[in-house]
Amino acid sequence: MIHRRISAVFAGAIIIAGAACLLGVGAAYAAKLDGKVSLDGSSTVYPISEAVAEEFQAANSGVKVTVGISGTGGGFKKSCMGEIDISDASRPIKQSEIDMAKQNGIDFIELPIAFDGLSIVVNPKNTWVDKLTLAELKSIWAPGSTITNWSQVRQGFPNVPLKLFGPGTDSGTFEYFTEAVNGKAKESRSDFTASEDDNVLVMGVAGEKGALGYFGYAYYEENAGKLKLVPVDAGKGAIAPSAKTISNGSYSPLSRPLFIYVNAKSAQRPEVDAFVKFFLDNASSLVKEVGYVALPDSAYDMVTARYEKRKTGSVFSGKETIGLTIEQVLAAEK
Question: I need a labelling partner for 51 at 20 to 30 A (CA). Which of 36, 38, 217, 309 fits?
Answer without folding.
Answer: 309
